[in-house]
Amino acid sequence: MSAWIGVASADHVARGKAGGFMQVCHGKAAPLRRIHAGDHVFYYSPTQTFGGKDRVQAFTAAGIAREGEPYRFDMGDGFIPHRRNVDWLPTRDVPIRPLLDRLELTRGQASWGQAFRYGLVRISEADADAILKAMEPVI
Q1: Which residue ranges run through the membrane (predicted)?
Q2: Which of 50, 66, 85, 108 lies most in the core, judged by the most C-beta atoms within 10 Å?
Q3: CB 66 within 8 A of CB 32
């Protein structure tokens, strides 16, 4: 099992949670192909809206990747991104700041946001456990 953090605005994450899917890196397929069935996936949302200045800086979703390959989806506006199906867990949003010194990904990093610049990052099992515990899934 691997664990991953995708980066997207909270409103985009909410759409994915409602539809049972994830998209990363502006709909590119290659990053989604790195994720396998059974992998844990999380979303970090820097903002509420795409391109907005309305900071959220929180983990906004946690789930398990489902069987199957990434697939294309026509959004109806000319944008046809790749998606991957995910079983989202019932979790609460958790601000990242209290976790910064507990996560291997960000511990000791003054510029911790740089870790998320590529849109999808693999994380350690320890980090996945810490994030999931903080999000308190109601399973």
Answers
A1: none
A2: 85
A3: no
